[in-house]
Write a structure and sequence with these properties.
Length: 336
């Protein structure tokens, strides 16, 4: 697998490139940083909001190897200072509040981070003369609910609930900055990300793994019959990197790209697969208390495969194996 990762990244393209990455302590951001740091000689500047010592960025000892600025994506003057003082030419805007239940409880903070944070970043980029490439990380949730599946990039964006709406708005704002100001931006949309380093334990995969490791019955907030599109985080990170590398082609700029392993699965089957891999006989506790959830959601990655020459490296099972191993190490539990 390692050799495939190396071949997927054009190290010469990134050499001495000044890259600004938001959301550095998040799941996706930390893996993008890890891959760029290990495989390239890019000059990386990372924005973090909070100091999270258990985050992948810190645990994997990447923190001392990159330039770190502490602050908020909504702070325009800070963003403008970073872009100017570090002479940034490439922006990977990956910061977001990504948890739907939190958005349901606290919509304003979600709107501030996901919507205002996006327009703040793009406006600062518009005023910076050095910016050549921008990625805005969106989500399959930006599409809202559609009867036509799988979602393709032309599917209308019509989120209805707080988190979905925040991603629809951020996505559309990015499109507006391209259409109105010719800002060099691409949009990436992923399904449900999973992988080592995810500390949001109300997400399905880390929640189930942690429960099993501690001998507790996994709790499923839905009825288990929702269909989701799970993608291992390293594949998503490679997709973002590949999108940036492809933006020298003028036909790529302004486009949106779905990243998916195109293997939709019932949530209850995902839980069962995790438990099988962990040799767990625990019962699954189904509470069926989730709100504002979309019943079926999965993506077509045909466009990314065709135009970006991207494809997932990891199967669902391989990704889960790596993820379970990471959490066993994280919780200091030895393989038996």
């Amino acid at each position: 697998m390692a050799s495939m990762e190396i071949k997927s990244i054009n190290s010469k393209f990134w050499q001495n490139r000044n890259v600004f990455i938001t959301g550095g302590t998040g799941l996706l951001g930390s893996w993008v940083i890890k891959l760029l740091h290990e495989k390239t000689r890019a000059n990386i500047v990372v924005l973090i909001r909070d100091h999270i010592p258990d985050s992948h960025l810190f645990l994997d000892k990447m923190f001392p190897q990159v330039n770190v600025v502490k602050g908020s994506v909504e702070d325009y003057l800070l963003i403008e200072r970073i872009l100017g003082e570090y002479e940034i030419d490439t922006v990977l805007h990956l910061a977001a509040q990504t948890i739907a239940p939190i958005a349901n409880r606290n919509p304003l903070s979600t709107f501030e981070t996901n919507i205002k944070g996006t327009w703040t970043m793009l406006e600062a980029c518009r005023r910076s003369p050095n910016i050549k490439k921008i990625i805005v990380s969106s989500s399959d949730k930006a599409y809202g609910e559609s009867r036509t599946l799988p979602y393709v990039e032309e599917t209308p964006l019509k989120g209805q609930h707080p988190y979905d709406v925040s991603k629809s708005c951020a996505d559309l704002i990015a499109q507006a900055y391209y259409s109105s100001y010719n800002l060099p931006v691409c949009i990436t949309r992923c399904g449900n990300l999973f992988g080592g380093g995810d500390l949001n334990f109300n997400r399905l995969v880390p929640s189930v793994i942690r429960s099993v490791l501690f001998g507790e019955c996994p709790v499923l907030r839905s009825n288990g019959k929702f269909i989701r599109d799970f993608i291992y985080v390293e594949d998503a990170a490679l997709g973002i990197i590949k999108a940036v590398e492809s933006m020298d082609d003028i036909n790529i700029v302004g486009q949106a790209f779905n990243f998916s392993n195109e293997n939709p699965i019932l949530v209850i089957d995902m839980v069962s697969l995790i438990m099988k891999k962990m040799n767990s006989k625990l019962d699954i506790k189904i509470t069926n208390e989730s709100m504002n959830e979309i019943y079926k959601q999965y993506l077509s990655a045909y466009k990314a495969k065709t135009l970006l020459d991207w494809k997932p490296v990891y199967s669902l099972e391989t990704g889960l194996n790596k993820t379970i191993k990471w959490y066993k190490s994280f919780f200091n539990i030895q393989n038996k």
